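re the bet — no i am not wrong, look at it urself. input seq straight from the record:
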Amino acid sequence: MRATTPIGKKKPVVLLSYGLGKHSTAAAVELIENPSRRDFDLEQLILLTAMTGNEWGTTKQLVENHLLPLLRHYSVRYVQIARKGARERDGISVLSDMNQPERLYTEGVYKLSDELLRAGTVPTYCGTRKCSLKFKGWVINEWIKQNLEGADVRQIIGFHAGEFYRVERERRYYSGERPPIEHPLIEWGWDNNACVEYLRSRFGVEWLWSACSFCMFSNGRPEVIERFRREPRCGADAVVIERTARIVNPRITLYSRRSVEELLREDGNEEAIALADAEMSSMTWTLMRVRRIRYTRSLVHRRTEELARGTRRQMDNLLHDAAIKHNLPRTDEGGHERLYIKRLPDSANYPQTEEMIVVVPGTVESKSRPNFEHRWNQIVSQNNLF
């Protein structure tokens, strides 16, 4: 790690981005308990966690049962923060800032699940990992700017020795926006297995990974399905997010090649499905006009417009009336009816347009890019010439 601060200079703040999982936990415990691993005093150390609002309950238990007592024993400062709202001007909220932490505030304030349900979509497999940037990276940067402006800051991230690719990606994402970043696990040569064994020997438990319970990168692996058995509420949350997104766009699923609901049904997780059913049955619903412009296979712009709001039955009746008005049949896709005014063409010629009317959960907001209407009219007019 970096050389010790020269005599006479103010000691730097050592900021450990604590992600709650096994890697950052292993780094934190070793740095706290083994003075030979660090060149700073514990009074310089701050653990900082940005909460997305959708962490696994088992992760919360592990941290509260094992790490927080250690922080209290050594009086290590721990700061928990979260995004306040959808817009950056909404700012961030400090959930807790103390050196005697008793509780993990995993519920956050404005949750990633709130964002997804408002947009009627699932996290995307894009190269920039927008959900992480928006709910973790930006929040951490804001806290640093508000609280450590002008200070000498050293930032530690718990990437392990098998994650050099993440180091390079982090440099691209945050170039010039963050203090210099250190990776002690890589310096020590600790890979994933080393972290797991270290925590097992120290606490007598197998530390599970930290992530949003509906993280698309888990891809429904067997260990994820097992975790949903133990935490059916998390499974229900994933189902509600996916169902909402699939109502707006029947072509997508939470995981890249599988539906989380299908996996839970195959596993016999009736409790998770029942919880999702109960939540959606209590929702307000809207009749929504959804239009898409597909510029390429992967570049799509969308506009959602609320036409009416009420109970599910009321909205279904309005959809029936719209079908009669347009003299078009309703289409059942995945157990949910929609009325296609215009379908995407089978050709590979772009841009393409699609328009439908569908009954969606009332969480989905009317939304579009500023120039959508102009581009839509332009493309439709051009297509009508042929």
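see?? DSSP finds 13 helices and eleven strands in the chain. told u. also The mean pLDDT is 91. so pay up
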